[in-house]
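The records we work with from here on pair a chain with its fold. Taken together, the tokens spell out the fold as the letters spell out the chain. To see the layout at work, look at the sequence and tokens printed below.
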Amino acid sequence: MSQEEPLAGFAIAVVREDGKWRCDSMGSDALRELDSAITELRKIRSTGAVFGMLAVDDEFFLLLRPSPGGMSLLLSDAAAALDYDIAADALDLLRVDPPEEDDDELWPEGSLDILADLGLPAPELQVITGEVDLYPDQQLQMIAQRCGFADQFTALLDRIQQ
């Protein structure tokens, strides 16, 4: 079995507990395997909100949020499933067929209201995912800003990218 090249990007677990936000790095497998990201998020014990933010290879992002009924998720670009296993796994979990090879259109797939209770309504998240001129880390920065944890997000990214 050959060792796969690591994917560029980052995976961050975001926790809001007692009115305070915390951002922590997730393991490197979280960028490659959806199951790894889900497992890692489910291990986090908190009375508040817990969700994951994954920026993959400067191409797309994933938002993952465990809930008692399963896993809510949002894939910023459904076409990423043609090139990335983690995106294909996300569409599979959503029970959505991947787009055709010749489809050039970009669209998000999943729960646009995934962060609505944290201050980011679905229409605003739709606008953020539609900003195709931005890189995924920039889109996630906008999400962090809107939800109120931009400082924690930026501080962790600065540590990760050193």
Remarks:
- The mean pLDDT is 91.
